[in-house]
Specification:
Elements (H helix, E strand, L loop, with lengths): L2 E2 L2 E2 L17 H11 L32 H15 L3 H14 L1 H17 L4 H12 L7 H16 L3 H19 L5 H13 L3 H10 L6 H8 L8 H17 L3 H17 L12 H10 L7 H10 L11 E2 L4 H11 L4 H7 L5 E10 L5 E6 L7 H10 L6 E2 L4 E10 L4
Parallel strand pairs: 1-7, 2-7, 3-6
Antiparallel strand pairs: 4-5, 4-7
Helix pairs in contact: 2-3, 3-4, 4-5, 5-6, 6-7, 7-8, 7-9, 8-9, 9-10, 10-11, 11-12, 11-13, 12-13, 12-14, 16-17
Length: 416
Amino acid sequence: MNRWAACLAGWLAVASLAQPPPGATEDDDDKALEDAFAPPSTATPSPGPPQIGADVPPPKVAEQPPETEEERAERDLASRLAAAATDADLAALAKEAAAMGPLPSLRVAERWAITAAAAHAPAPARAAHARAWLLACGPGSAREAARCRDRALDALRESGAPGKAEATRLEEADRCVASASPTERACLSKAIAAYRRSRDRLMVARATLAGLKPEDAVKRRAALKLCPDPRCASMRAATLEQLAADELEAGQAEPAVRDALEAIKQRRVVLPASQRLYARTDALDRACAAFERAAPRGKCRALEHEALGGYVFRDYSRKSGATLSASEAREATDHYSVLLTPCLSEYGEKSGSGRYKISWTILNDGRVTNVDAVNIDPQGRMMGCLKSQFTRWRYPRYKGEWQHVEQEFRVSGTTR
């Protein structure tokens, strides 16, 4: 296995822990991080205790993060939805789903409409369920929302003559919104009237936004209030990201960061609970890069924690390659290191200084296992905290032998 070793200190400042020792510079920290992932033939040998777990083969499966109550509830709902066959079953699930978020609600509405059609329910009932499905569309990308509407409108059309006429009107409105420019007032006015008649606040907002020019930032923000429903969160997020891009172009980095963070908050509303930690976007990364050209390093993460009450990350395991390069591993390690801050802040030494040499193994699926340390009680609370945080790290997937990382974290105590 490849073995990397390093000393890292600078990132700990975001936890209000002590600064690096006198004489240390940010360049020293960057050099240390570079050395951590240097090829074995060029890396500087690490002094001190023997290598950690040198002869201990890692398990084939990484530890999984504990399932949250929200994740358990979503899994249970999906299981019962697959078995649901009656209106009573589906009505009970719809009530539960409404409290869980727009995506579970959409899944129940879709299943109910399809079940009603398959059972040849009376036309009014089929039309009602098709409308409920249509009014649940919205979570996901604009393309996913459009596909959802197409399928729900097909169900509405097949429910009978009244449903067919209604579906035709709404399809015409949808085509207008998809292709209209801000100057096509007549088309958009007619579309907005059709959506209001069907009580579809999401599409009223979309049609209103389609009629606004890019420079109408104030009106675009106001249009988001036309649909405060959770199902509109994806639409609000996309609009906020457009506003953030405009702000970046105008040199307004901090407002761009704040809009990108608000967009992430909206996107998390419509994501499954298990994916919310990995909701980081390109819009936020671009805004942070611009912001930190002038602000201190780590300031954008501080704004992130302030806005979200925590952090969001990229799931690097969505990428795969023949090997895991040192630069890819270094990027992911730096990206996730902030997750260790609470452990070192809570359980690290409160006075004097502490050095914690931590090692871990990156499996082929990008997950982490074999978390170990030289000078931390393997059964203690600090090690338990570190292991729990490492379950959330995701490196790029790769082939070949497992990669082993060994890194030293330096923490100096402060009065807190």
